[in-house]
Amino acid sequence: PKMIYLKDYQAPDYLIDETHLTFELFEDHTLVHAQLVMRRNPTLSADLPPLVLDGQQLELLSVALDDRELSAADYQLDDSHLTLQPTAASFVIDSSVRIHPESNTALEGLYKSSGMFCTQCEAEGFRKITYYLDRPDVMSKFTTTLSAEQHSYPVLLSNGNPIASGSEEGGRHWATWEDPFMKPAYLFALVAGDLWCVEDQFTTMSQRAVTLRIYVEPENIDKVQHAMDSLKKSMKWDEEVYGREYDLDIFMIVAVNDFNMGAMENKGLNIFNSSCVLAKAETATDAAHQRVEAVVAHEYFHNWSGNRVTCRDWFQLSLKEGFTVFRDSEFSADMNSRTVKRIEDVAYLRTHQFAEDAGPMAHPVRPDAYMEISNFYTLTIYEKGSEVLRMIHTLLGAETFRKGSDLYFARHDGQAVTCDDFVQAMEDASGVDLTQFKRWYTQAGTPRLEASASYDAAANSYRLEFRQSCPATPGQAEKLPFVIPVELALLDAQGRELPLQLVGEEAPVGRSRVLQVTQAEQAFTFINLAEKPLPSLLRGFSAPVKLSFPYDRDQLMFLMQHDSDGFNRWEAGQQLSVQVLQELIGQYQRGEALVLDQRLVAALRSVLQDEQLDQAMVAEMLSLPGEAYLTEISEVADVDAIHAAREFARGELATALFDLLWQRYQANRELSRSTAYIAEFTHFARRSLQNIALSYLVLSGRPEVLAACLEQYEACDNMTERLTALAVLVNSPFESERATTLAAFAEHFKDNPLVMDQWFSVQAGSTLPGGLARVQALMQHPAFTLKNPNKVRALIGAFAGQNLVNFHAADGSGYRFLADQVISLNASNPQIASRQLSPLTRWRKYDDKRQALMKGELERILASGELSSDVYEVVSKSLA
Ligand code: B3K
Ligand code: ZN
Q: Quick one: average pLDDT of 475-486?
């Protein structure tokens, strides 16, 4: 496979004004006929270069140019292109191909999942359906007719509006759909299956009625209400916050069981992983309910940020993904607790995106080269891309940002554009020059921001100094300074925010404000401060950087209690925990007895005693930084020391805080017993505290906790409590209860694949010794299959990504296991294979012995035979 570069971008030679597709779906093959109404791109010269259509794994049956059947001498065919010579500036191509969705295990293009036909075309799946100009800057008006056997496939769907349907002889039927909006091929979709739907209606801001339908397999019809509610909330929110109205008469979501990622925003016909649609109390956790809400919103928001305005080329992917993640995270913040949502997002970003940015696959938000575009649906494109948008939002303010987004949508509606076009609209609407800011799009790596301060008592002034730098990343040795928005406040001894007046300012400008650090070294001096303040820096995580400030532990405890920025209260607790855990890690490595700094106990005690504090915040503050995060911030990660230190701290906290934890557990469990399940954030909040309390309490090994755990498991009415009770038991010393409960759970839920995924995950994550053997045994379980991506993620992904002590076993057995799975997945599903690889790409983080073992497995994969471009790119870059 070869590298593709942004600098080589060229506008398409030809355009496709109309695309008329006909699908004849059969059990052992599918026939696709495509009629393409084409013309020479009028912005280019008048000559007629060869027409090069993309196509892979297609059996060409016939091709005609303007009704003239072509013979093999008239075109060239290789394994990825069909090339022919147009003779006029406007022409029509008719082609027929045979494809095999029934044996498509890569789940890209047209494939079958649980007996239904469905598609996944982004990024380059359409070329596995028909010969086409499969690139996002070729936009076309699509008409689609599909026919299938009526009994097995009563529902026939495609993009746009249904315009005709009918029956054929032989028990077959057909339907025609027309999409009035121009779209690139990656937004094409079709579905044929035996599906039921829940229907609802939404009236848009201009009073148009839109029909909403969510299609699922019949047995899941009782699990779609939450997704439907989420959809209506999303439609309303996008009207209110962005002024965006839905544009077709019908909006459909279809749930499928085998799907490579979360969901896909095909125009008017979103196709979802069933894990991101189905949710009801008995079978889905609170987290799953929140994920459904977020993904439904995300895909819906793409209708504008992605579909109406799309990407010129795949280097611009973050144009739609970063923006849409930013939109969905703000939506979730508005629907739930803003602070808690921010904490979750930041914890995720710092653990996973920062690790990516520090590894061999590091790339800018707008990459400039790739081998396989599927490998670039990354945390950097999505999550860091969203942070970049958030910074623009912070710098411009909500109102000006809205003017910018209005301008962007108005200016580029119906176009395929670039990240530069987006930033240009923001600049034009605001008058702000974002030239330097755009380095966030082009430079990879996580900037470090070191801050220090000095107080001048004689002058009543306080000087804050910042120093920024950014580590080298592949292909980028040197970095230029970023524009880093630092929101901050200065607190007095009571924790009150002080007026902020910089030297040279006439008067204070607020008590919490955004400074812009734009130079490698930069200082800000605040005046009129009668006492030495304590800074609250980078409030709300106003930039995706690694900030350091020399707080001592007492100051962090003070911020935990007094900072008026909720995010920074949590952040102070995290920093305190990190300091304490790193001390324990050192003790463990030196072979000393572990001694926990009692200040952490005291700090968490006052959090638990604070009845005013949002219970979700209490739960977040009780959550110690995860092992993966502790790994990310280590120079060389000592997995065993990290695990031992963290478990020791948890045990000590459980003992010291037992009574308070027990009290809060009981109070919340009592509420759970007396109220029916509600999927609403105040209830998410109290259950999250109840559940984290239980996970601490069980460490005591006390019989009353075991009894409580079993009571919760048996008597609850929802999956959140049930699964937590199970997970707590699985990680507990109560061996026989663990086994019986696991067996009972599997027996009860054996027919629900999404619940079984949870069952696999809980066991894959158990850090008790013998993890690999348990995972290997589970791979033989009848409910497990490597063909289903959710199963792969639930078992193999959870083991390698979350069970760090077992995965990193010193003998290399975890690495060997993962490499074996990647090798077998490489043949069946390259995208999933490549994703599962990522733990091995982080080999530079570990000690020499583990490094050698991990590299050895990467080399073994490389030598294992024919590799997909997906796997080849990740392995070769990791070894480079
Ligand atoms: N746009 C899709 C992702 C497609 C991934 C292709 N490998 C889902 C989303 O981000 O909304
Ligand atoms: Zn998206």
A: 98
| Cβ neighbour number for residue 592 with a 10 Å cutoff | 10
- Joined together, the tokens standing for residue 91 give 């022409």
3-class secondary-structure state, position 427: helix
Retrieve residue 804's tokens. 């760090």
Residues with Cβ within 8 Å of residue 1, at least 6 apart in sequence:
371, 372, 869, 872, 873
Residue 478 CB contacts under 8 Å (≥ 6 apart), including other chains:
472
Q: What is the pLDDT of residues 180-208, one digit of tens each?
A: 999 999 999 999 999 999 999 999 999 99
| Sequence-separated (6 or more) residues with CB below 8 Å from residue 721 | 672, 687, 690, 691, 712, 713
Question: Which residues lie near ion ligand 2 (Cβ < 5 Å)?
Answer: 321, 324
Residue 665 near residue 694, CB atoms below 8 Å:
yes
Cβ atoms within 10 Å of 472's Cβ, excluding its own:
12
Domain regions of the chain by residue span: 14-194, 750-880
CA distances from 260 to 106, 264, 265, 807, 810 (A): 8, 10, 14, 23, 32
Distance separating alpha carbons of residues 693 and 667, to the nearest angstrom: 11
The pTM of this model reads 0.99
Distance between CA atoms of 387 and 371, rounded to whole angstroms? 25
State residue 1's pLDDT score. 87
pLDDT of 430 over the 90 cut:
yes
- Tens-digit pLDDT profile for residues 213-269: 999 999 999 999 999 999 999 999 999 999 999 999 999 999 999 999 999 999 999
ipTM associated with this complex: 0.99
Name the active-site residue from 108, 124, 217, 299.
299
- Residues in the chain, overall count: 880
Question: How remote is the CA of residue 193 from the centroid of ligand 2, in Å?
Answer: 25
Contacts 24+ apart (CB under 8 A), 730-739: 730/762, 730/763, 730/766, 731/695, 731/698, 731/766, 731/767, 731/768, 732/698, 732/701, 732/706, 733/701, 734/706, 737/706, 737/709, 737/710
Q: Is 299 a catalytic residue?
A: yes
Residues 318-355 pLDDT 10s: 999 999 999 999 999 999 999 999 999 999 999 999 99
pLDDT class for 560, splitting at 50, 70, 90?
Answer: very high
pLDDT at 733: 87
Supply the DSSP string of 861-873, one letter for each residue: HHTSSPPPHHHHH
The CB of 298 under 6 Å from ligand 1? The reply is yes
Question: Residue 555 is encoded by which pair of tokens?
Answer: 């100051």
Q: What DSSP state is assigned to residue 153?
A: -
* 608, 662 contact by CB (below 8 A): no
Q: Evaluate whether 650 touches 624 at the Cβ level (below 8 Å).
A: yes
Q: Which of the listed CATH numbers 3.30.1460.10, 1.10.1270.20, 2.60.40.1730, 3.30.930.10 matches domain 14-194?
A: 2.60.40.1730
CA atoms within 13 A on the CB side of 144: 28
Ligand 1 in reach of 376 Cβ (< 6 A): no
Task: Mark 153-180 as b/e (b = at least 16 C-beta within 10 Å).
Answer: bebbbbbbeeeeeeeeeeebbbbbbbbe
Decide whether any atom of ligand 1 lies within 6 Å of the 264 Cβ. yes
Ligand 1 pocket check for 107: Cβ under 6 Å = no
139-149 vs 14-25, strand pairing mode: parallel
For ligand 1, pick from 120, 122, 380 the residue to mutate: most ligand atoms within 8 Å of CB: 122
Q: Which two tokens stand for residue 301?
A: 């928001």
CA atoms within 13 A on the CB side of 299: 29
Task: Report the chain's terminal Cα–Cα distance, integer Å.
Answer: 16
Q: What is 750-880's CATH superfamily?
A: Peptidase M1, alanyl aminopeptidase, C-terminal domain (1.25.50.10)
pLDDT digit string, tens, across residues 538-557: 999 999 999 999 999 999 99
- Give dist(CA 277, CA 293) in Å, integer: 8
